[in-house]
Every structure is written in C-alpha cells, then in structure tokens.
Amino acid sequence: MIGRLRERVRRLLAPSGTLPPLSWRGQLFDALVALALLLAAVAQGDGGDSPQRTTMVPYVPEPLDPVAPPTPPVPPVPPAARPVPEPFLPIDHDRTTATVFVLALVVLPLVFRRRYPLAMLWVVLGTVPFVTDFDAVVRVSFYACVICAYTAAVYSPYWIPALVSVPVAALLYAGVQESAVPTVPVDAVPFLILIPIAVVASGLRRWKRRADALESEQAEALRRATEHERARIARELHDVVTHNVSVMVIQAGAARRAMDATPDQAREAMLAVEAGGRAAMAELRHVMGLLTMDSEGPDPAGAADLTPQPGLDRLEALVQRVRDAGTAVELTVTGQPVDLLPGVELTAYRVVQEALTNTVKHAAGARAAVLVAYDADQLRVEVTDTGGTPGASATTGDGHGLIGLRERLAVYGGTLRAGSRLRGGWRVTATIPLESP
Fold first, then answer.
1. What is the rounded distance in angstroms from the CA atom of residue 184 to the CA atom of residue 195?
2. DSSP 3-state assignment of 360?
3. What does the alpha-carbon distance between residue 236 and residue 130 come to, in Å, rounded to a whole number?
4. 224-238 tens-digit pLDDT
5. φ and ψ at 121, to 5 degrees?
6. Residues 6+ apart with CB under 8 A from 251
7. How many other C-beta atoms are found inside a 10 Å radius of the C-beta of residue 351?
8. Which of 27, 104, 223, 368 is the least crowded, having the fewest Cβ atoms under 10 Å away?
C-alpha cells in the first residue's frame, strides 16, 4: 500500500514534458519586463511616505462681492474623499538606495522566469519574509509573483507542483500588511474568476497532450524493442536451423543414392542425419527455453533439457558434423587461447557455422578450412573454401545470414568481411576485439 502511494506521488511530481525552446526574443522580452517593472516602481514611488496615496478634490469657496447684495449660500460641494488606489506605493526617502536595491533583487527572477518557471516562483516567494519592512517592495513582489505564477502554470514541466504553489503564494501574501498588497476593485472580480479558469483549462489540455505524447513514445519504444527482439530470435533460429537442416538434407540425399549399392554407407549417412537432427533439437530447445523463461527463472521441469550456448569449445563437433556430410574441413587454432565473454564465443561459433553452411549449400565437393587465431588484441575467425557446385538448396538463400552476423559482431565492436578469393572459392573473415570477461 505504501509502495503504491509512493509510486503515485512520484508520478505526480515527475515532469510531464520538457520546457519549450526559448529564443533570444523571449529572453529579451523577459529582461524588458523586469526592467520596466523596476523603473515604474522607482519613478512612481517617490511621492512621500504615506502607505497609500489619495487624490483629493479640495473645496474652494467663492469670494463675496461687497457691492452686490448677498445671495443665499450655496451648499458646499463635498470633497472627493474616496481614495484612488495607485499601482505602486511611495518609497521612503530615508531608505531610497536600499529600497531600489531590494526592488532590483525582487524583479531579477523575471529575467529567468521561462527558463526556470517553478524555481523562479519559489525564489520570489522566498524573498517575501525579508522585504516586509518595505511596503513598496512588497507590492512589486506581489506583481512579480503573479507573473511568475502564470509562467509556472503555463510553461513548467512540473505542472502539479506549479498548481499547488499558487494557493501557497496566495496564503503567503494574505499574511502581509494590507497596505502593501493591492486591493481588488469590485469590477475586476469576474475577470479574476474567469481568467484563472481559462488558464487552468488550457493547462489541463496541455497536460493531456503531453501525457498522450508520452504514452505514444512509450508505445513506440516498446514496439521497437519488440522488433529488435524478434530480429534477434530470427537470427538465432536461422543460425540453428539452417546449418543442421542443410547438413541433414545432404546426408539424406547421400543415403538415398547409396541405399541400394552400399547399404553400410547409407546407414552411416542416416546416422549422421539423426545426429544433426538431435543437435538441431537441442539448440532449438535452448532458444525456446529463453523465450518461455519467466521472471522467476526457467521452468524447473524443462531446465534439464536446456543446453549451454555453443562456444569455441564445440567447434570440433561442428566441424565433424560437416565432415560427416561429405565436406572436407580442416580446423586450425593459433595463438594462446584466452577466456572470452560467452557472447563473443557464441558469435565466433555462429560465424563458423554460417560460413560452413554456405559452403555445404553453395560449394558441394569443395574443401574448407577454418582458422581461429588469438592475436594480441583481437580474435580472428576465418573460413575459406575452394569453390564447388551449388547444391539443390542454394536457391533458398536470402542473404540474411551474413546480415545477422554483422549485427552480432557489431555488438562487440567486431567486423565481418565476405567475398570471393582470387584462386576461386569464398572467404569469410571476422575480427572481434579481445576483452576480459
């Protein structure tokens, strides 16, 4: 329960998007807004020490004419005693320099309001307790807070914290001196109600668009990961099935031709077909075991059927199967063998397997040579053949085998070169940088 609550809180506090790009025009506009607010506060705040100015209309009585007969007195016009609120409060002349300096500090966050929306709002709020002795500064701070609150609600990726900060700011300024915070005329109340509703509605729509975009990005990432995994499984199945089935087809054909004349050779060929089938089934069970593995590990009932991924220690068995299929193969290992990552060994094994499979399919009757060389800084695997007659299954190739090998090698920083030899035949060379497991 606590974990779910913590996860929900984390999601609410997580950013729902990114900040929009800020142009130099936007930066210049923010700087001008801050400067204009500072200059207006300084220019209009030099009229005295009273907390609020009032515009009074004095009554001046008309002079009496001594010659003219007296006229009945006219009731005096009452003075316009109703105060007219002004946007800025006067600056105390005894503290002009300090007030101007504090004003500059209060409006400075406006310069960075769109680059750090929520942070600048909290910077303005954080300065309030330190400027309460300056009524003129508190009023300008209130204006800066309104601007920063709007910016945070519209631009901040942390939309929920930005909305929560607005009532916090209202409560903070509600505790400040009444004379410092401007009063709201009655005619402005509808606007103060409708405008925030419009801003919140716009923010909700924008948040929903960001949520939809994030969901689409996650779906696209899942789709790409699924396609990548399908491609990896397809390469694995291709390497496992193509080699063993190609050898089995050749052995079965040899057994069919030798069945009447030399039954012993036909029997050996069928045994080779059986061995190839068993090897193919073992590797297929391994691949399928990886596909059916759940989060708690492989199924204990099927774990005994899984065999380790083939490595360089099984090259001899691979070469022997190809020899049994009728292709002469020579295996040579040079250099000092070192411990390699399992993935590197599997990749080298697949290179030899794919190259020998192509030899069996496309160069019947050829002789092949496999070289595994442990150099100082790389592992080099080379498979060559002398060329021969394409077999019956040669037309089924689609070139995906070499593409899959290049992708496998690229994972470990390796390269693959494949092409014909000047003396005839084909050569496949793979190099993999050596790294300690």
1. 15
2. helix
3. 69
4. 877 776 777 667 666
5. -60, -45
6. 269, 270, 272, 273, 276, 324, 325, 326
7. 27
8. 223
pLDDT at 406: 84
Contacts 24+ apart (CB under 8 A), 35-41: 35/107, 37/107, 37/110, 37/140, 37/143, 37/144, 38/103, 38/104, 38/107, 38/140, 40/87, 40/88, 41/88, 41/103, 41/136, 41/139, 41/140
Alpha carbons 276 and 243: distance in angstroms, whole number? 9
pTM: 0.41
Which positions of the chain have pLDDT values less than 50? 48-57, 79-82, 84, 293-306, 437
Give the tokens for residue 326: 């009728």
Cα(193)–Cα(165) distance, rounded to whole angstroms? 18
Q: Strand, helix or coil at 108?
A: helix
**What is the pLDDT, as a whole number, of residue 299?**
46
Q: Domains along the chain?
A: 12-57+75-183 (no CATH), 223-433 (3.30.565.10)
Strand arrangement, sheet containing 378-385: 328-334, 367-374, 378-385, 426-433, 415-420
First to last CA, the chain: 42
Nearest to 142 by CA among 116, 175, 119: 175
106 Cβ partners below 8 Å, 6+ apart? 124, 127, 131, 137, 140, 141, 144
Collect all residues with Cβ–Cβ distance below 8 Å to 183 and sequence separation of at least 6.
Answer: 85
Centre a 10 Å sphere on the Cβ of residue 265 and count the other Cβ atoms it contains.
14
Q: How far is CA 154 from CA 88, 145, 162, 212, in A?
A: 27, 14, 9, 18
pLDDT at 84: 46
Concatenated DSSP letters of 262-275? -HHHHHHHHHHHHH
What is the DSSP code string of 143-167?
A: HHHHHHHHHHHHH-S-HHHHHHHHH
For residues 355 and 412, give the distance between their C-alpha atoms in angstroms, rounded to a whole number. Answer: 19
- pLDDT of amino acid 52: 45
State the Rg of the chain over Cα.
43
Burial code (b: 16+ CB inside 10 Å, e: under 16) for 209-231 equals ebeeeeeeeeeeeeeeeeeeeee
Secondary structure class of 418 (helix, strand, coil): strand
Whole-angstrom Cα distance, residue 278 to residue 321?
12
Contact call for residues 345 and 374 (beta carbons, < 8 A)? no
Whether the Cβ atoms of residue 360 and residue 396 lie closer than 8 Å to each other:
no
For residue 59, the one-letter residue type is Y
Reduced to 3 states, what is the DSSP secondary structure of residue 249? helix
